[in-house]
Amino acid sequence: MEQYQQVLLKILRLHGALDSVLADVTELISKELSVSRVSVWKGSLASGGIVCLALFNKGKSEIESGLFLPAHLYPTYFPAIEKTVFLDAVDALNDPRTCEFRNNYLIPLGVQSVLDAPVIINGEVRGILSFEQVGEQRTWTHDELGLIAEVAQFVAQQFVQEERRVIEEKFNAIVENSLDAIYFFKAVKNHEQEIVDLILQNLNPSALFEQKKPKEALIGQSLEEVFSGFDISDSYKLYVQTAKYGKSFEKEINFISNDGGSYSYIHLVQQVNDGIVVFSKNLTAKKLTEIKLIDEKEKLITLINTLPIMFFSSDRQGRFLQVNDCFCQFVGKDHDDIIGKNAYDLFPADEAQLHQYVDLKVLRTGHNEVYECKLKTRDGQNAYVIITKAALKDSHGNIVGIVGTGQDMTEQRKGEEQHKKLQAQLVQSSKLTSVGTLATGIAHEINNPLTVSFGFLGVLEEILDEKNMHEGDFKTATKSMHAALERIRIIVKELRTYARSDPDKMEYVDFHESLNSTLLLCKNLFEKENITIKLELGCNRPLFSGNRSATQQAIMSILSNARDAILDAKRGGEIYVRTVLDRGHITVDFIDNGCGIPPENLSKIFDPFFTTKEPSRGSGLGLGIVQTIVQNAGGDVFV
């Protein structure tokens, strides 16, 4: 009994690094008690196995370490060791708790008997102390059972001290390398155990840099002396209460330097041992950065609000997070009435459904989407908008919402439609020009056989005169033929005159002559459509300086418009043309009983390409050309 107590006392006196202490423990037990193999293992069933920290082999007189035994290979042993104070297996090869080690551990090493004890910390198995006897079986005595239990507790204490040492080393490394200033103050108490002061015990390099004083000058100073430049007068009681009651606090304080500079700090105070630790963080740079960020944010918001396009952002649920002024103006709502709302709160259901579909696609794929949609503006008008949406990501690259822009393309869309209309009208105008050119060619071609027909008709009349047959039916027939050919000749002449364009030629023009020539071309067509042209020519040969073909073109254009208005009215009608000569000015009135011009179109009828007709019926150039022709002749047109 005394021998075992002596061994235990020697073990309890051991101190130093963990590996050194464990080596001494295993060697001491092995030699003093004649145990073949004594080892300390760290680990458990929960950690997946045990690893050998120190093993003294009496036969070799050396320390070994590093062997690992995985728990899954020994499913009986590990649960058994965790349920007992010690595990004594005299016949280890056949004991059901240890026989799992037979082939790969016990037999190769010659181990016959085993005595193991769990190393327990806070109720959990953290390791194993093992006695192993080689050669012959050994019955473990009561004293040996008690010793291994006591030594297992000592090993547990060494484990705890080592863990504490590692934690302290890590903590000290963190403290030493921390960019924040860290101060350790000890509480000074009176005889009634009341805290009367807090004295600085230690501080890290960052704190020395903050204080701008040597460490020797600071150690032993009171809290108020250390923080003499800090405004802590109102907070001093909080520091004391933390030391007394352990209630941590965090407070922002100001520091006034010797040169009058003002700096912002935050103090985090916590209880530690018999005092407090103060973490002091300089917020000045952060404050300046925050001010700069706020300024930049305000500039960005101002820039976004001045954009002529809509800007918006929304979260993954489609709720608007930010919108600019253009967006607010478009939907006709204030900023506060939009934030937190979704598309269904702002737009009709069919429009909102489209926006939601695109949002889900962007959130799913992360790809940008551009699409055109039709939206209702605040005044109820339809607007065509091009919307671009992209994924809104956080600092880790996770998609957290949508950011997008919207550009009102309504005016551009109208311009494109007007351009298409203009193109169609230009094509129609080109066709009209081609028709004029074709008419000139046809007139020329008709004129040749017409001349031949006149010649043969003259020969025929001479033959009839010679044979005295120019009477009765022959005479009537030749006169009719002559009249018909003459009419064709006049029409061809007027057609060629009308189609021939010479806008620079100015001459005296008889308006009545131009009117009659034009009527000769179109009167029959109008009569077939049940349209009567009535003339009231109030003067004789009203002459003016102008262009004859341009004048005919203007008359034809006005008559054609009158004809179309009558046809649109779907009834027969009449066109009334009246001329008046008053003090050297010729006034010509064209009046019809057609459908008329809507009041809202009166201001646009002279605009190029403005027309209410189908492209096949009008190019929108007629009245604009009429106005130009009349103004070139010194006149004007009124409706």
Provide a compact summary of the structure.
With 639 residues, the chain is an alpha+beta fold. 45% of the residues lie in helices and 26% in strands. Strands 1, 2, 3, 4, 5, 6 and 7 form a seven-stranded antiparallel beta sheet that branches.
Structural descriptors:
639 residues; 7-stranded antiparallel beta sheet; elongated; 5-stranded antiparallel beta sheet; 18 helices; alpha+beta
The separation of the N and C termini measures: 137 Å
Number of strands: 22
Number of helices: 18
Shape: elongated
Please give the radius of gyration in angstroms.
57 Å
Instruction: Look at the structure and give the mean pLDDT.
Output: 82
Give the helix proportion (percent range): 40-55%
Q: By helix and strand content, what is the structural category?
A: alpha+beta
Strand content: 25-35%
How does the major sheet shape up?
A: 7 strands, antiparallel
Question: Which stretches of 5+ consecutive residues score pLDDT under 50?
Answer: none
